[in-house]
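REQUEST FORM: STRUCTURE PREDICTION
Request ID: SP-0412
Submitted by: Lab K.M.
Chain count: 1
Length (residues): 204
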Amino acid sequence: MTTIDELVGEITRCRLCVESPDKTPLPHEPRPVVRLSSTARLCIAGQAPGTRVHASGIPFDDRSGDRLRDWLGVDRETFYDTSKLSIVPMGFCFPGLDAKGGDLPPRKECVRQWHDRIFPLMPQLELILVIGQYAQAYHMGKERQKSLTDTVKNWRSYFEQDRSPKILPLPHPSWRNTGWLKKNPWFEAELLPVLRRTVTELTG
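STATUS: Completed
RESULT:
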């Protein structure tokens, strides 16, 4: 059976989206960004690296990461401690930019090649934070609502289920979502206190 370290090595060497892409090849050299762990009880399932993360190779090494760490109530040291926290985006490489300068969707090759191999190797996970619509589609399937807002608004119905690992849907921490946060004050008032308390329990 493949170990986590062996799988990380395979992912790091992956060139699937350049050499055998589904459609248009990745427009730059691959630089997979992922953090797997055999001990972390918490997993962050996000979207895909942006330009800054592609440059540094460090997940959430940007303003979105600053906001996410604030949501979680953790410092950078805890956030990047793979013994406490794993990070598995839906796409491991920066997918490139669309015509308007926004990030393209995560590459579908990643899910097909890697995700169903990753999570069976981390049975110790107790909670997956499912950030954004692409991660919610994979981890929640038909359980999610028609919109991201409705899915996140119904967070208790997912979080309180008797399941392992538990699922907690979140919006993307991008600063472009500042308007969404203002329109949905329940997120900060109701969800964040539970999130921070749970993260403290799982990473303490």
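NOTES: The chain has one domain: 4-203.
Reviewed by: T.R.
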